[in-house]
Amino acid sequence: MSSQSIDRVMGSVDFLSEKMADSAAERNWYAVFTLPQNEKSVVKHLDIRNIESFLPAYETVRVWKNRQRMKITLPLFPTYLFVHIHHRERIKVLQSPGVLQIVGNNREPIPLPDSEVEFLRSGLYGRNIEPYRDLVVGEKVSIKSGVMQGIQGMLVRKNNSLRFVLTLELINQSAAIEVDAHDLEPAVA
Q: What residues in the chain have per-residue pLDDT under 70?
């Protein structure tokens, strides 16, 4: 193989790797609205289509009629999950069984801030998280350090423990997570 041929091949490889890096950088997180109680099956269908998805979940204890206590895993935001896609991959998501729409305005889907989804992905492990539906007016705070640094939310109390409430405004859903007071600071307006 000649020197020019090798240079041409190497140039093609560089171009392809740049193209792949660009496409990864162009990917955004979007909220997907699903049929009720179909979130887990939608995630399976998205996996088959090689679509990166994320379904935040929490564990709770339910007591059945026979008084048996059972620990179950439920979606943190019922009927919602998140996909990390390029704008051109929308059709693959929309064709998945159980998907109703990608959340956005009438013209196009609206991407979520990466920091909010990364907070949910990295902040759940080892922490007690649960859905938070009754958002009360409180102090707006931000997390000072760690993987969740800079995330802003509302500070509330529950059973004498501090709760940080993250609200995903695009889908009007909230989640509460226990935090230590020293990890929080007043949010800069």
A: 1-25, 123-126, 132-138, 158-161, 181-182, 189
List of long-range contacts for 135-139, beta carbons under 8 Å, 24+ apart: 135/165, 135/167, 135/174, 138/165, 139/186
34 close to 80: Cβ distance less than 8 angstroms: yes
Largest CA distance in the chain: 79
Angle at 32 between CA 141 and CA 91, to 5 degrees: 140
- What pTM was computed for the model? 0.65
Answer for the pair 39, 55: CB distance below 8 angstroms, yes or no: yes
The SS3 assignment for 163 reads strand
- The reported pLDDT for the residue numbered 140 is 79
Nearest to 176 by CA among 122, 140, 139, 127: 127
Q: Which amino acid is at 9?
A: V
pLDDT at residue 18 in the model: 47
